[in-house]
Amino acid sequence: MKDHKDLHKPIEKVKLKDLSLDDSKAYHKVICPSCKDSINVANIELKTEMGKCNSCNVIFSISDEIKNVKQEKEKRQEFLRPDGIDLFFFKDEMDITIRDHMGGEEWGIHLLVHAITGGLALNYFAADNPLSPYFVIIAALLSIYFMYKAAVFTKNNKTFIDINSETLNIKSRPKRILRQDKTYSSSDIDQVYLKHDPNGGAHIQVVLIVNHIDGIKHENLCIVSNLAKAKYLEQEIENYLKIKDRKVPEATR
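and the corresponding structure tokens:
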């Protein structure tokens, strides 16, 4: 008879190997245009590009679905996922996580703080005030503190984009003063395009063209550090929302 301890011996944990996911695979669920029921693959004829619904017994063309899958596959093969962006799918939702950087606005605020503290310190020192050395030390410590906060912020900050059939939500964590959480209706998003950050540098803005009630608006979605990340985000958002890419005059050439 086995010892009681052996029967209740903890199972050894085994480290699973990392799974390699092929991001280039494209798929499309075929829906009956009459009753909106899902079509079984057995009722799809790829050669004739026709489908049959067992629920309502209608026959319909699937040429548009096949064309969309081909286009999605071509786009996915064009831009592979760059380092710094994670992509997840759960049910009908696509979640994008961007390990972010600090944009031009944030760096501008930090540089302004350094300029103000440095200027005040020099002015105070030039006034030959007995407290000027202490003021200079305080100004230097404040500058070091803000530089440290900027470095930590850049390392830990992430941007989250959650998209489903109804909404596109974007938020930055930790929260930023200049970047508030936003929500857009998925059906109102007409186009996604890229343009250089007006604050300079190599940063690229990802911009949405949104059909509001009061007219068309260009909304800045996020800022990323290079063109590869921006192209990938544009590609994946347009693929998910089934937006046909077109040229936009404001886009970066």
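(Above: one complete record from the training split.) Helices lie at 4-7, 63-78, 104-126, 132-156, 227-241.
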